[in-house]
Each structure stands twice: as structure tokens, then as C-alpha cells.
Recover the amino acids of this structure.
């Protein structure tokens, strides 16, 4: 018998029309569904009870996985998620863990229904395993999904799924990450959906084949069984729910959950003015040895009750900084869930009906096979989410009530550091590998009404946790010299961004150098942007202290507090590099805080004083960025007013003005745009001085004062030197009102960063 050989285009998944998908299924695969009349007939009490029971099922699946897994990525960092989907794969209820994965789970089920229903078939007691990011289920190969069909009375009723990041699945680099990769063949092998459980029995040949690829096979094998167990929990709880309420009732609730989420989001969108907003961001370096900047751009358009995210103009795929369509969709969900759907049940299958994606294949966030995608979720997908969050925040900032959920960019990237070597502390030396999960404690972005949360976590993993330092030292041959919040790392603003943090480790309990793989972004160009004149948060920085004095310091009973005490040979780590860390050397990582909101010169001086007392900022930042003068533990009001006037005069002296102002407006009938701008009639005005800056039609640029200076002009949070990483010039660009000199937009960007028509920095001011 002749078997066709599939091309790479076969292993590609996209959203599908549910009716068309149902019609395409083979007759042997009967599915359970209900009609609209059954959905409409639900009584409110039953609906709420069953809905909350479904929610509790995903929570219980999460607890089951955490109790069975031995990986700190799962048990400590919570880098996993779950979903209950309907018979066609539409996500009914998702977990509160890694929300980017929400954008990929349904794609894997759609693909499976299209490509596995005939051969090998989809039957009761089956479970599929997949780590192919072009198929879906995860965002790169280390995201591994195990998912199962749930049958009732011989009909396909639903799907459950569990997906988690695995520490290593083979490939050239430690942790399956190769900083020099130019294609997927240097990374972990993508595996399309394969039956790992058949008829309720684990397929030992498939399981052995799976774990054989890993440097830590026991952890990967344990996680495989943990995900199978979590799916079993989900199926058992669904069966009990169906037994109690009936299959038709439970299915009607599932369908209504999605339609309710869809209608509530559409109602929210309908209440907002139509408009378009554009945001552009960069990944600095694409692979080991690269010194370029690589752009992702998105134009977000809201029309009536629908959103369109158009990524046309994004740079071509390059190096390791690519993600597939699933990653781009996951980035969208990273922003949409907390910003637009924070008060709507997360029935993702309904929420995803409210937006369209426009994208070109072969680009950074829609890469085609065989692009390297190891950095997918924590590089291009994350940046995609941050840019969409900027646009959505600008959209919501027009409404005082909805604007309460506006937020500057949180920790803009994930700093990856993988260490691996030989643990010699036990009776027998043993290999080890660890992905450092400390950057889970990123800083949150500031809001119009509050500072960002210091080391509050990651926007995309609401229930993420930072590992316990003592547990890290127990499990791996390392000694932590410090782990602490970093002063000034939160973006300055009227409200300050949340602080980031740093950790310093030295080998302890091993006599040979350990491997060190680094992968990050946001060193040269800020990825934790501020809003409405707020400055970006800190740049990240990785440093290896060679020829260190750490052994002598520890022998003398001294614990160092800074790298200057440890060594005179400090080696900045590139964004992408394979290196080493020898005994007696120190690795220090500083990760990002959140962006600020509003002009720092408008921050309450007492809030600045409180930050000084609590060591959130340095005296230099208080004076030079916030313009606050304190003496004897109190703010000097007169000196502060004078200092802020001096700093505004400095903006006037250093800036060039584009466009012409048109006099003052009456703000009585002003309609809010954001913290600084309002509409009066068909004009855009500064709310601080009432100066008319332009018109709403977007026909000509706004009247703005523009300053391009060194990145350090943004403040002491810029701790990395851009020229160490990229060749292109990088600047601190600030737009100010040319009348009162209030900062309207502040960013660290390439010198050739595009100025869109009628823009303020990164966001287009176009109104409907």
C-alpha cells in the first residue's frame, strides 16, 4: 500500500469554522452537541452551578499536575496550563497559569480532528502527545501538551488538556536552547500529535522514545505521567458532572459559557469609540553573533464590536527569535485576557471570536518551517503581547472606568539562563540541569491610579511564583550570594513601574565548570515601555565575574553585596551566548521591572519621598528624574517646585519642535484621550495647559517638542550599554507639549524608530 509523504505545510494549524470542521469528520466519529433551543432553555441557577464546577475541574487538574511533577518549572514557577474544550476543541474553560498557552491548545485539537480521526483514529481511552509549535498545543518545542478526547455514550463529548514546559528535550543546546540556531534542526525535534495512551494504557514504546531525547529523562518521564494523571482527573470529574446533570445540560452550559464571554466582550468593545493604534517594538540580536535589531509592529483597529490586529510590516524570521502562528495568537491572549477580559469568565473559545489576525507568513511572529523557534514564547510572542497591551491600554484610557485596567508594559521579556554540569555533593556525582526561574518575579507596569507591583510576577502567568532560594541551593550545586529588588528598576512616572530584581550565584559543590546558556532581550532597546510620558523600566543585564575574589571573601566570613567587591573582570553576557561558569566565578542576572505611567515630574513628591525611605529609588533618581528635593527626611516644597521648573526648562532647551500650536482651548467640553491629552471638538489639546496640538483627523503631525538623547537620559534604570549589543544607534526619545513641557511619550528606541502619522511616540492617536 502506498502512503503519501506529508509536506511541511501539512503540519500547520489555523482556527477553523466549527460547522465546517464538524462536517469534515468521518461518520465513524460521532460527536455530541446540542441545539440553540437547549442552550436557551438553561435555568440561571443550573448554569451558574455547572459553570463553576467546570472552573473547579481545571483547578483540580492543576493541583494534580503539581503534586505529581518533580520539575520546579511546574511545582514552583507554575509554567503550565489546562483547558476543557468542547467536542470540536473550542476552549470552554482555561486555567490561570500560563495564559499564552491558551492561544495554542485549540489549534492542536483542530489539527488532530482533521488529521488523526481516520488513522490512527480517535477513541475512548486515547491520549495524544504533541510538541510541534506549528501544529499547536504549545508555543515552542519545550511546551508539551497531553490531551484526550472524552466520550459519553459512544459520542465525542469534550476534550481535556494539560500542557507544561519541559526542562530539556534534546537538541544542540542545554535546555534544548541553541543560541546559534539558524533552523529548527538545531533544536528539539518537533513531534506532531501521537497516541501516547491507547485504550487507557500508556504506550511504553512511545513513552520510551519520548524520554530518550532528554538530558533529564527522569524529570520528563515524570512530567509525562503527571500530565496523563491530570487528564484522568479532568475526565473523571467531567463524567461525574454529566452523571449528575445530564450530558445535554452540561454541553449546553459549555456552549453558553463561550457565547456569554463573546457577547460580554463585544458589549464592552461597542461602548468604546472606534479608532486605531500602532505600536512597534524590537528584539535586540537574533542569535549568537548577531548585532541587529528586529522589529515587530502591530496596528490595532477597533470597529464596532470587533478588533483587528494587523502585523503587516513585521520583519522576516531570523535566528532563534521566531514564533509560529500559535505563538502570535498566544501573545494576543497574553494581553487580551487581563486587560479586556479581567471581569469576564475566561471561556477562550468565545473571546477569540472577537478578533481577527492579519499577518504575513515568514515573519518573526508567524514563522514558517523550518525556522528556529526556541525563543518563541519568551521572545516574539511576549513582545507581540506587550505591543498589543500598549494599544489596548491606549484604547481603554479614553474611558475613566475602563481605564482602571490600563497598565504600562510589565517586565518586558524573560531572561533565560540555563546551567548544567556535575553535582558532586552526594556519594555519587550526578548530572544536573536547571533553568533559572527567578525572573518570574518581574515588575508590573504602572496604572493611571497606582504604582506597578514590585516583583509582582508576569502578566502572562497570573499564578506564577518565584522559586525558593533555599530549595534551589538544595537541588543544585550553587550558592546564592543575593536575591533582591533593584532600586530604580521601575520605570519613572506619575505612577512608578514595579521594581525588577537580581540574583547572584556561584558554583558550590562541583569542581568542574558548568555550562551556561543565556537568551534574553531588552538590553539595548527597552521592552518594558511606559505610557503617557512614563519612562521605560530598567534594561536587563547579565554579568559573569571572572577572576573573582569570592572564595577569599567567603573564607573571611564576608558576604559581598555588589559585583565591584567580587571582581575587577566583569564580562557582560550577550543576549544569546553559550558560555561557562567555573568554580570561583559568579553569575549575576538583573531582570526587568515595569514601565511608568505619566510624566515623572507630576508624581506626588510625598510618594517620591516614600520611595526614598523604602529604598525603591536612589537620591539621584529623586532629584534628576522626579525633580524632588528632600532634606532632613521631608520634602522641600519650594525647592522641589524650582527643581521641576528647571528640568522643564531643560526639556525646552534640548528639544526641537515639529508642527505649530494653535492657541488655547476651552476644556469644559473636553473628552479624555489619556493622562495628558483630550479632544475638544475636532482638536487634540494638552490637558495641563489647554494648548491645541493638532486635529483629530490625522492629516498632519501634532505639534510636539521632540528630544533624542542617550539612553541613560531616561534615568539610572538604564544599566546596559546599547553599543555592547547592537550596531544601530539607540536613543532616549521624548515627546513633550511645546507649551507646558509635560512629557507625553518617553521611550528608549532605535534612532530610526518610525514616527507614524499623527503619533505620540509609539501609539497612534487616531479617533473615529
Amino acid at each position: 500500500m502506498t502512503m503519501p509523504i506529508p509536506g511541511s505545510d501539512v503540519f500547520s494549524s489555523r482556527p477553523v469554522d466549527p460547522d465546517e470542521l464538524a462536517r469534515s469528520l468521518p461518520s465513524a466519529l460521532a460527536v455530541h452537541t446540542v441545539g440553540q433551543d437547549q442552550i436557551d432553555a438553561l435555568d440561571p441557577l443550573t448554569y451558574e452551578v455547572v459553570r463553576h464546577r467546570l472552573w473547579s475541574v481545571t483547578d483540580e487538574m492543576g493541583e494534580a499536575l503539581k503534586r505529581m511533577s518533580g520539575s520546579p518549572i511546574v511545582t514552583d514557577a507554575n509554567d503550565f496550563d489546562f483547558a476543557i474544550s468542547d467536542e470540536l476543541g473550542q476552549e470552554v474553560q482555561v486555567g490561570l497559569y500560563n495564559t499564552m498557552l491558551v492561544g495554542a491548545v485549540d489549534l492542536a485539537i483542530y489539527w488532530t480532528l482533521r488529521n488523526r480521526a481516520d488513522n490512527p483514529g480517535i477513541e475512548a481511552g486515547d491520549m495524544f502527545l504533541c510538541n510541534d509549535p506549528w501544529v499547536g498545543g504549545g508555543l515552542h518545542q519545550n511546551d508539551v501538551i497531553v490531551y484526550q478526547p472524552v466520550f459519553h455514550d459512544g459520542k465525542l463529548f469534550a476534550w481535556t488538556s494539560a500542557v507544561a514546559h519541559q526542562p530539556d528535550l534534546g537538541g544542540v543546546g542545554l535546555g534544548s536552547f541553541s543560541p546559534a540556531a539558524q533552523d529548527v534542526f538545531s533544536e528539539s525535534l518537533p513531534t506532531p500529535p501521537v497516541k501516547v495512551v491507547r485504550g487507557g494504557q500508556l504506550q511504553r514504546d512511545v513513552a520510551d522514545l519520548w524520554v530518550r531525547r532528554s538530558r533529564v529523562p527522569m524529570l520528563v518521564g515524570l512530567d509525562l505521567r503527571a500530565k496523563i494523571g491530570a487528564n484522568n482527573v479532568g475526565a473523571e470529574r467531567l463524567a461525574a458532572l454529566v452523571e449528575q446533570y445530564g450530558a445535554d445540560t452540561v454541553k449546553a452550559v459549555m456552549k453558553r459559557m463561550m457565547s456569554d464571554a463573546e457577547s460580554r466582550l463585544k458589549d464592552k468593545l461597542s461602548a468604546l469609540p472606534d479608532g486605531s493604534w500602532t505600536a512597534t517594538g524590537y528584539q535586540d540580536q537574533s542569535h549568537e553573533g548577531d548585532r541587529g535589531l528586529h522589529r515587530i509592529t502591530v496596528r490595532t483597529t477597533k470597529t464596532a464590536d470587533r478588533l483587528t490586529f494587523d502585523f503587516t510590516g513585521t520583519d522576516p524570521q531570523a535566528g532563534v527569535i521566531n514564533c509560529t502562528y500559535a505563538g502570535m495568537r498566544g501573545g494576543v491572549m497574553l494581553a487580551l485576557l487581563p486587560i479586556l477580559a479581567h471581569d469576564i469568565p475566561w471561556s477562550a473559545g468565545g473571546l477569540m471570536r472577537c478578533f481577527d489576525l492579519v499577518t504575513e507568513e515568514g515573519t518573526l511572529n508567524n514563522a514558517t518551517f523550518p525556522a528556529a523557534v526556541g525563543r518563541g514564547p519568551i521572545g516574539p510572542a511576549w513582545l507581540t503581547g506587550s505591543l498589543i497591551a500598549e494599544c489596548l491600554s491606549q484604547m481603554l484610557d479614553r474611558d475613566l472606568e475602563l481605564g482602571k485596567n490600563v497598565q504600562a508594559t510589565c517586565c518586558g521579556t524573560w531572561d533565560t539562563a540555563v546551567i548544567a554540569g556535575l553535582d558532586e555533593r552526594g556519594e555519587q556525582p550526578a548530572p544536573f540541569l536547571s533553568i533559572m526561574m527567578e525572573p518570574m518575579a518581574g515588575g508590573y507596569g504602572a496604572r493611571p491610579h497606582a504604582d506597578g507591583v514590585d516583583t509582582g510576577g508576569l502578566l502572562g502567568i497570573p499564578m506564577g511564583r518565584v522559586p525558593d532560594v533555599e530549595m534551589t541551593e538544595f537541588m543544585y550545586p550553587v550558592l546564592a550570594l543575593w536575591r533582591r529588588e533593584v532600586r530604580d528598576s521601575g520605570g519613572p512616572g506619575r505612577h512608578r513601574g514595579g521594581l525588577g530584581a537580581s540574583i547572584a550565584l556561584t558554583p558550590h559543590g562541583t569542581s568542574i565548570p558548568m555550562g551556561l546558556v543565556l537568551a534574553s532581550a531588552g538590553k539595548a532597546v527597552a521592552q518594558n515601555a511606559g505610557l503617557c510620558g512614563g519612562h521605560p523600566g530598567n534594561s536587563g543585564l547579565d554579568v559573569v565575574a571572572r577572576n573573582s575574589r569570592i572564595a577569599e571573601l567567603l573564607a573571611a566570613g564576608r558576604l559581598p553585596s555588589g559585583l565591584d567587591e567580587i571582581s575587577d573582570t566583569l564580562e557582560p553576557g550577550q543576549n544569546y551566548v553559550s558560555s561557562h561558569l567555573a568554580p570561583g566565578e559568579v553569575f549575576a542576572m538583573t531582570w526587568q521591572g515595569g514601565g511608568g505611567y505619566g510624566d515623572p515630574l507630576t508624581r506626588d513628591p510625598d510618594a517620591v519621598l516614600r520611595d526614598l525611605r523604602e529604598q525603591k529609588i536612589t537620591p539621584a533618581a529623586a532629584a534628576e528624574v522626579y525633580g524632588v528635593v528632600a532634606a532632613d527626611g521631608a520634602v522641600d516644597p519650594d525647592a522641589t517646585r524650582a527643581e521641576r521648573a528647571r528640568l522643564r526648562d531643560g526639556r525646552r532647551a534640548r528639544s526641537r519642535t515639529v508642527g505649530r500650536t494653535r492657541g488655547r482651548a476651552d476644556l469644559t467640553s473636553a473628552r479624555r484621550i489619556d493622562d495628558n491629552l483630550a479632544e475638544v471638538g475636532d482638536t487634540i489639546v494638552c490637558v495641563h495647559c489647554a494648548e491645541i496640538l493638532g486635529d483629530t483627523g490625522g492629516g498632519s503631525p501634532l505639534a510636539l517638542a521632540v528630544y533624542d538623547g542617550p539612553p541613560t537620559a531616561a534615568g539610572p534604570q538604564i544599566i546596559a550599554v546599547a553599543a555592547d549589543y547592537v550596531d544601530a544607534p539607540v536613543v532616549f526619545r521624548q515627546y513633550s507639549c511645546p507649551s507646558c513641557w509635560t512629557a507625553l511619550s518617553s521611550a528608549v528606541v532605535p534612532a530610526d524608530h518610525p514616527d507614524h502619522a499623527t503619533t505620540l511616540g509609539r501609539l497612534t492617536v487616531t479617533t473615529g
About this structure: The longest strand covers residues 155-165.
